[in-house]
Amino acid sequence: MCSSDIFLGIIAILFPPIAVWVKRGLCSADSLINIGLCCLGFLPGLLHAWYIISTYPETDYDSLPQDGGERGTATYYYVDQRPSEDRARQNRGYGTNERMQAPPQQSGVVKGQQSAPREHEGESSAGGVPPSYDQAVKGDHKVQT
After folding, report:
1. Which tens digits make up the pLDDT trace of 70-80?
2. What is the 3-state secondary structure (H, E, C) of the chain?
3. Is 0.70 topped by the overall pTM?
4. How far apart are CA 34 and CA 32, in angstroms?
5. In angstroms, rounded to a whole number, what is the distance separating the alpha carbons of residues 5 and 55?
6. Residue-wise pLDDT tens digits, 122-136
């Protein structure tokens, strides 16, 4: 028995199903049996919890074989840093053989059209004073409550 099993034995004195839940899981048959025994009385539930703790001990990591599974081998991977043809293809569009071009810079004015002058141009961007409440709701005839 390791120290965690001793601690679970002490926890089982306070509430036996907790120790069973830690050992066997929340929705296991042992958990349902322990809850049923606790309904019959504290002592049957406690004895069952101690039985579960002693039957399913914690894995002792010192007893595991030290050479289990790995056999002391290492795997090396070589990563190629040279540019390849696959990386050159990544800059191409879907289903095309041509390289993708950067989109042209867009401006707010379409060629051949004049931009309409704004009514309050420069007020908000120039740091002007914002309109007062009366100016903002001018023409708004809703009932304000």
Report:
1. 566 677 777 77
2. CCHHHHHHHHHHHHCHHHHHHHHHCCCCHHHHHHHHHHHHCHHHHHHHHHHHHHHCCCCCHHHCCCCCCCCCCCCCCCCCCCCCHHHHHCCECCCCCCECCCCCCCCCCCCCCCCCCCCCCCCCCCCCCCCCHHHHCCCCCCCCC
3. no
4. 5
5. 11
6. 445 556 788 888 888
